[in-house]
Amino acid sequence: MNDTLYHELALTLLPGIGPQLTRQLMSYGGSAKNVLLMPPGKLRRIPGVGEATVKALTGPEREKAFRKAEADLKKAEKDGVEILFYTSKRFPSRLKLIPDAPAILYYQGTADLNAPKSVALVGTRKNTDYGREQTERIVRGLVPHRPLVVSGLAYGIDIIAHRAALQEGLETVGVMATGLDRIYPHTHQKTADKMREQGGLLTEFPFGTPPDRYNFPARNRIIAGLSDGTVVVEAASKGGALITAELALSYDRDVLAVPGNLGSEASAGCNALIKSNKAAMYTEPPDLEQLLNWDAALHQSGKFKAAPSYSTADFTTEEFAIITVLAAAPGRELHMDDIAWQSQIAIYAVASLLLGLEFRGVVRAMPGKKFALV
């Protein structure tokens, strides 16, 4: 059994310790094992740690978490499930860029979660024939780019998107609001089975987690964070698809919406997104290609500058880790604290490394301790 992953998993299974507190504890403890063995007095000196957290980390709940972690690791190995702590190199790099990223993920599938291109398709659970037709049309338009198609495995637009991707030979990942052993809705079991072989299933919730209502908004942030852009096909004036769109916008990700007939409740949310300039209008594949810079012709014309390539031979391991983090956010600057978190390098070391890279002309510094690749 992987001792490091065992302690990381146990830490995330403790009650009251969410992703942000997990990262806070890790920044002080250095490792999950150190956190779980830390004495109460030292825990109390960590900002944000109260008595409830101390009790969870040192009392009977800790032993329950250890037992659950051991059982879950055995089940994961048996079922071919990969458990990814946020410090893992295989943890999706796009998710590391969002402030409320999950601390751990359970993944079962064959797709690369760090695929070069990724797009989310979301919408109402009560789709119309128009919504079905547009979803299938959008997926067909994606085929030349071979992106990872992300959605939520729910009724309506979600499952239509997954099935269309499977039909077109595209890899598709379903982000779940349950444990991987609880396919919801159960009627999508056969599609989920196919996705394990041509894409995957992903969740932050441990085995046995039921489809509780409050899990779905949390699931939506992963859909938005895992994708370069989100396309809303049909959405009512309120609902999960609009939540996903708002989350994508808050993460500085592009949002597109398919317009619908005026007066159609199924398209009211999409029309509102377009009217308020929160979403670009999707009418044909070039709309998405140009917004996400996927249009090869535009790149060849020189309108967009190609990202520079770097060789590991020219940099130290830590320098290249910083370059990799900055390269994952092209055209955007990152704060020094974000660089430290995403690269898993101590903040004092990051400051020195960035200075060295700046002198070499690899990165440029901007006001507010922000940096970007040159």
From TrEMBL:
GO biological process, one term: DNA-mediated transformation
InterPro entries on file: DprA, DprA_WH, DrpA_SLOG, RuvA_2-like, WH-like_DNA-bd_sf
Sequence ranges assigned to domain DprA winged helix in this UniProt record: 317-369
Highest taxon of source: Bacteria
Annotated Smf/DprA SLOG domain residues: 83-288
Family, similarity comment: Belongs to the DprA/Smf family.
Protein name: DNA-protecting protein DprA
Organism of provenance: Hymenobacter properus
Lineage: Bacteria, Pseudomonadati, Bacteroidota, Cytophagia, Cytophagales
Record gene name: dprA
